[in-house]
């Protein structure tokens, strides 16, 4: 498949033009024109790039790419090594940040819900990034949901607030979306789940009465890139593989 055709297809599929983001979405580093093999992962780390070189991949597709707004733009050190690896080996880098969070089937929020058995019934927060709906079982407490997360994601989450609260309405947004907690409370959630936690999050949970679960940034955002690998293989005839490189955050 031609790289340009792949880029256009994914940009349209993930509705890149619809979303405001703080990084460029789509093709970030241009490699060879023909794409047969794609390595998918959460972050375009050096370890993932080295795996792409070793596996003779033509392109890398990730959720966390490069060129974030406000970062130092000088090509030195770690940034030089990463870009040099891509350019020397003629490997393309495609990255989809918010578009891969919000897609209704392939996105991180949709995929996390599928893993957890949550039913999305509405959206909240800016650009409808957050999801709200029903938990797998309505009579579960926040502590019981945290225990289920630990089993299904293979990572012990951090629960703050009232663990005994029964959860009829659950809200979630993967990754570093702890900043949407108050909006989740306003939307009627009995529990909010995201990836990371900040100091002030604990106080919001205690004072609002709505518990919060930090389930891991990486752990909650593995499933979008994993779904993309399956999509590329099943729908575009590419040899696509997801590589999970563990991250404790």
Topology:
Blueprint: H1 3-13, E1 26-29, E2 37-43, H2 46-54, E3 59-64, H3 77-88, E4 92-95, H4 98-102, H5 108-116, E5 119-124, E6 130-134, H6 142-153, E7 158-160, E8 170-172, H7 181-186, E9 191-194, H8 199-208, E10 212-214, H9 217-220, H10 223-236, E11 239-242
Parallel strand pairs: 2-3, 2-11, 3-4, 8-9, 9-10
Antiparallel strand pairs: 1-4, 5-6, 6-8, 7-10
Characterize the structure shown.
The protein has 249 residues and is of the alpha/beta class. The chain folds into two domains: 3-97, Udp-n-acetylmuramoylalanyl-d-glutamate--2,6- Diaminopimelate Ligase, Chain: A, domain 1, CATH 3.40.1390; 108-220, NIF3 (NGG1p interacting factor 3)-like (Udp-n-acetylmuramoylalanyl-d-glutamate--2,6- Diaminopimelate Ligase, Chain: A, domain 1, 3-Layer(aba) Sandwich). The chain is 37% helix and 20% strand. The chain has helices at residues 3-13, 46-54, 77-88, 98-102, 108-116, 142-153, 181-186, 199-208, 217-220, 223-236; strands spanning 26-29, 37-43, 59-64, 92-95, 119-124, 130-134, 158-160, 170-172, 191-194, 212-214, 239-242. Strand 9, helix 8 (199-208) and strand 10 form a beta-alpha-beta unit. The longest helix has 14 residues, at 223-236. The two termini are 35 Å apart. A divalent metal cation 2 binds at residue 64.
CATH class categorisation of the largest domain: Alpha Beta
Count the DSSP helices: 10
- The radius of gyration over CA amounts to 19 Å
Largest sheet: 6 strands, mixed
Spans where pLDDT lies below 50 across 5 or more residues: none
Residue share in helix:
25-40%
**Which strand order does the major sheet show?**
5-6-8-9-10-7
In round numbers, the mean pLDDT is: 97
What is the CATH third-level topology name of the largest domain? Udp-n-acetylmuramoylalanyl-d-glutamate--2,6- Diaminopimelate Ligase, Chain: A, domain 1
CATH architecture of the largest domain: 3-Layer(aba) Sandwich
- Report how far apart the termini are: 35 Å
Structural class: alpha/beta
Q: Give the percentage of residues in beta strands.
A: 15-25%
